[in-house]
Amino acid sequence: MSASVGVSAPVFDRPAVPAFPSTALSAEAAPFSPGESDCSPLDSLSDAEKQFSRCAAKLRALRPDCSQLREELNQLFDQLLSENYNRSCELPITIRPEDVCVLLKHTSGLVPLNQEHLVVKFCQLVHHLLNQLKVIMDEQTLDVLVKYTVNALKQCSTWTHSDVLLALSTVMYGNGSQCHQLVSDLLREDGVILQYSSPSQPNIELRHVALTCMANICLRIPGQPLLDDQYRSLCFRLFLKTLQSPKPPNTDDLFYCMVIQAALKGLQFCLSGGKWKFGGGEELGSVLAALKRLMFQGAPGLSVDWPEVIYPAPLSQYESLSPPRPTEPPKTLETPKEADKTGKTSGVDDREEEDREAVPEVCGDGGDGSRNDVESLAKQPASFLYPFWKLNSSESEFSDIEGNAQSKLRVYQCRVRQLALHCMLAVVKAVEKRTLYGYWSSFIPDSPAGGPPSLTLLTIILKDPSPKVRLCALQVLSAILDGSRQFLAAAEDTASPRTSYTPFSFMLAAAVRELHRGLSLALLAETSSQTLTQVTKCLAFLVANAPYHRLRPGLLSQLWKQIRPYVRHRDVTVRGSVLRLYGAIVTAQAPLPEVQLLLQQPENLGGGSISGSVTPQDSALSWRHRTPAAFSQQNSSTHSPQLPHTPREEEKSSPWLLKLCVSLVTQPREEQSDSEGAGGSGALEPSPVRLEALQVLSHLVRGYFPLAQSSLYEIGQLSVRCLEETDPSIQLHSAKLLEEFGAGIIQQYRAENSVPDNYKVPVNQVVEFWLEVLSGPLNAALQNEQHPTLQASACDTLASILPQAFAQLPDKTQLMCITVLLGLTYIENYLVKTAAVRALGVYILFPCLREDVMFVADTANIILAALDDRSTNVRAKAAWSLGNLTDTLIINMQNVGVDFQEELSDMLLLKMLQAATRAAADRDKVKCNAVRALGNLLHFLRHSQMTRPVFQRPLEDAVRALVKTVQSEAAMKVRWNACYALGNAFRNSSLPLETAPWSQDAFSALCHVVTSCKNFKVRIKSAAALAVPAQRSCYGDTKRFSCVWRSLATALENSEDAVDFLEYRYSASLRHTLSEALLHLLSLGTLQDMPELSASLAGEEGRVIREHLFKYLKAEEGEGKTGEDEAGEERNCGEESGQLQQRLGRLQEALVRLKSLKAEEEGGEQEKDMVVNFLEDLLKICEEF
């Protein structure tokens, strides 16, 4: 057999060596992590290198025809195998990988396959050197060693195959995709690897090594391609079959755990780095069933009949618990005496918990009782709420030999559970969210009304004795919850539950509540800082995706109070993750009434008292020696004493969370945390905590600005202080905070928000705020070329200044802002250029700047240059800014008049028209604003400009670009804007619609989309565009006019035929616009148009038109409103009456005009009378109604 050199397969445990340290399981992890060993002193390390060099020189000097070859090889192999080359020592070995490759290639030619003892030692040497030195082989060495080991498997005896396969697995680690031909030979049906890895293989050691070899073949190193799908599928089926197979009789439990570990590792490698390609629901259900069973491998007191396949279902699938045998007492691992002491170790320290993981002890009542407490916590005393891993005893009922075997078995079973959860994580990442959603009920509890409790991920999180297994379960749950908003959106329990059946929405809501409850328990009980961090991260994923506006209030309030003490946890990562959770709470469906109430509570109420949240970690949370009362007193220098507040005072006081974050960013901590190392007193919080606090402030300002606006001065001071620091991350987040605060002020002053003046931040305070910011370090951040992201964020900050406040800034400050932005557009970095161009696009709309012709011209030239940039993002923002600039042109044309049009250069307008036309052929993100700009420019052009020859071709190209966009298969937003742009162009009375050759194409395109486009918003804008021309001559001859009429009538008749149900909410707005367009055409019709109009109104089509026109005239159709607008908004009666009279007035004007039409020739009078009668009947019905 092989020599006892203490080797093991990569990343898999062997009983001959100490257990490997637990490490993160991923393809990116460092390969071949060996067992822990004492680092040799300096002289030993030096001797090891010398030994390698000496032996390598001797081996390279040997030739196959040497007389003493066998003895020399034996001696040199033993010497090389006896050394420790582990690079984890303090002074790493400096042996070059190329020397190892040369040595192994040369030695492989010295060891004949008929000398099996030498073959075994050489294979051990291959594993030993490659594993400990972590050598990355060149292609030639890889080819030589793979061929040698494959030939050894074919020619050598079976007793050598264990070591040969071990060497082969080491050589193939991550190299499977590079050995296509050899992999096909190794994995053929009659090959040695498949034979040895089969569940029918009696030799458990060979089976383990063969599975390890297959797993390493499937492993993909980052940067390399995946193994061919056919081989991955073959290995996948074998790994799954291994996991599904029962333990062979008379097999040692430790060896069987090693086999399962190898299969799990291989399954993880198959799933990592790609999408699920291993069959349909049956295969996925089989994998999930096997992994779920192994997640509970070695769980104490658990007897479950596990299903072989899990099927997708909205209802929970309960594993059937095997009935207990009454004739035998339950076998517990804890004596009654120990049960009395179970509560004594609940406050175990993090380090003690980690040390005891190698020999985890379990509670004797870990069977049904340990699960029932998860399901019925509300009925149990407080001491029963702790997971059973918190109630361990330090005693043991085993003898030394038995206890050692049992503890080792528990370690191996713990490793199985950990690997099963890592496999589950790979499945979650590989399978589509929609597909995985059907299996949620098997892994997430939903508080069943009756029946046995389900075994879910929460069971592991609350019950597993290993903190690393609990950490893995939390990672899996986090991955499941991440991106689940669309699936949880249906959850609702605001209504009373029905007694006859449980709605699916109520079940989803129950699952959300159960997740809250379980994770809250884990938060209370967890002592491992790393696992506690993951608990808070998992809660953040849950909060970010759950629809709290559809759930009964209370969940966030309880969580808010519970996480309050952890802000002062000794571990910096825990503090950072808790702040991230606070950020998720204030972001969830903001503004949420429940969170608003929490923010308005005084510090000494609700979430402000630690005494109301007694946790096992309270002793660890006092490292700051600050109670909430002390925290309040610390801030008393800047806030009034704690007195009873009136409601009005409460509204003006800053939220507790805001003051906490400001304190964490600016105030020094009083004492050092255990995880931060040495540092002087008075030091600020670590950078991660301060960054999280700044992000929470940004979320708070964005979602709950009315509560944060009272802290205008504090936030300004905080931002200025942070911008003065040297850490660019702190500067960046403070700039983003300023941007959010500026955006909140701008939202208050928007007319559509209708915020009362006494609730707005006064303009004079806004001016003072920005004067302080702009006179401080923000200017330095704008010019910090070493950090482009900071420059870009500073540009966004400048763009968030309230226009009314900007107008009151000193002239030199305004000039500084404009000059800096103009200069930053010449920076090569695309982030800076994008932000600067966007900021100019914001400034061009400021009333105090938009009438400045020079500023408009300078901005236009900057935008034109940016439209030719190679970065798509720059071009997209340039197109957006060009759209804003052309909006400004229209506003100035309406407010200032011809004077502004004449001052603007014709050549600049021509360049803008040509640039927008080119941009209309760009990508959709550029095109959507380019067509908007084209519509504005065509509306802005004067008749004198259109008649100039230099404008003739660009004008035609611009219109044709809009027509092409309307007819294209571009994004609906692009087509919507193109239709709007054509309507905008039609508003220019100087546009030659009746004679231009492109006019027919424009009307044809609009008529086509108004009847056939599946998107109703595109139809609405096309109908609105067709109703824009104010003169009958603009519609061309009778044929074109009739085509427009028929298209609008057909569209009205089909206005309820929505292909996509989501479009149905726009049908009322579509009918309103179509009715308005038809009435507009009726008011413009001539006698030549009457035959077509009368024919349309006389038949069934006329009945439909009359019905919809009546609804339009009576204001029964929503004017430009979506379904939600109509359902959630009450109309003002006065406005409705005015609209009704205005519409009836237009109808009467059309009727009068039609009656006044005189026939120049015979004919047409009869058709005119029919149209007049139609309108008179319609008017009569409206007046009677």
From TrEMBL:
<feature type="region of interest" description="Disordered">
    <location>
        <begin position="1118"/>
        <end position="1137"/>
    </location>
</feature>
<dbReference type="InterPro" id="IPR016024">
    <property type="entry name" value="ARM-type_fold"/>
</dbReference>
<feature type="compositionally biased region" description="Basic and acidic residues">
    <location>
        <begin position="1118"/>
        <end position="1134"/>
    </location>
</feature>
<feature type="compositionally biased region" description="Polar residues">
    <location>
        <begin position="630"/>
        <end position="643"/>
    </location>
</feature>
<protein>
    <recommendedName>
        <fullName>HEAT repeat-containing protein 6</fullName>
    </recommendedName>
</protein>
<dbReference type="Pfam" id="PF13251">
    <property type="entry name" value="DUF4042"/>
</dbReference>
<feature type="region of interest" description="Disordered">
    <location>
        <begin position="317"/>
        <end position="374"/>
    </location>
</feature>
<dbReference type="InterPro" id="IPR052107">
    <property type="entry name" value="HEAT6"/>
</dbReference>
<dbReference type="InterPro" id="IPR011989">
    <property type="entry name" value="ARM-like"/>
</dbReference>
<feature type="region of interest" description="Disordered">
    <location>
        <begin position="628"/>
        <end position="654"/>
    </location>
</feature>
<dbReference type="InterPro" id="IPR025283">
    <property type="entry name" value="DUF4042"/>
</dbReference>
<feature type="domain" description="DUF4042">
    <location>
        <begin position="415"/>
        <end position="595"/>
    </location>
</feature>
<feature type="compositionally biased region" description="Basic and acidic residues">
    <location>
        <begin position="334"/>
        <end position="349"/>
    </location>
</feature>
